[in-house]
């Protein structure tokens, strides 16, 4: 019994995916701030070579944008990489492929014996499912599930502040400031009278099953910021729907977070499903959601970019592709302090490949 207790933290994959996805850089501008060392939620004392473990996948992007000097990620959930762009990660954290991922499997089961072998100084996790087991370990653990709010703006600002408090640092360029800039720009772009387009946000499209993002989901919040009407607004959270329902909604534009590439739909190559009947197909307005430090379809350090990308795809007369790329490069310069090369930008924005091609 003790072996089983030490070996596993049982987390239901579907629950974790809904929680996490919707339904080494030096920062010279960081300075020390007072911290309560007796309360990890208020902050921990960071010493040289702080060994960090990240169980919650999107938090790696927050770490990349706000990480302190003298810290090393020694363990991480591999989903932090599979839902990101390899070229971007290589620019920001060249040794990321050497980070240990073997302590946690694809079902989010953590082997605590292997985790302890990494000698972590601090563990970032997400929610009560993992808290009970981690509390038994003699390691500072920080829960990044701070609230039930589904707005990516609120979530990413809280994540950034919580991480900076934990590492006893502050940043001059913050995600909070970037949200203000992004919101102001989106409002400016959308202020003129225009016909609001209907959008469908596909949370996942796997094995022929289409799960959409409904009311108060991450996708719904992104749509609101981009001036797009969510056709699935009548659904709470994320739910599987039929093609007949999609025909009835008849969206003008479709965005896909997880699952098959958009080109499969554009070429109408899905099995026993005919997408040619909807307006988005006729408009060739079906898009894969890009991945950079993490997928833009879920809360991450890249989230302030997402509404503007949505505008550029839905209302290209309001924000051209070239203008969006200029904004993207500026964002990465401010938040990550790197100059994005054109080839990496194109790799971020290109459609997903069909497996085997």
Automatic annotation (TrEMBL):
InterPro entries: ABC_Transporter_SBP (IPR050902), ABC_transptr_periplasmic_BD (IPR002491). Pfam families: Peripla_BP_2 (PF01497). Residues 51-318 form the Fe/B12 periplasmic-binding domain. PROSITE patterns: FE_B12_PBP. Belongs to the bacterial solute-binding protein 8 family. PANTHER family: MOLYBDATE-BINDING PROTEIN MOLA (PTHR30535:SF34), VITAMIN B12-BINDING PROTEIN (PTHR30535). This is Iron(III) dicitrate-binding protein.
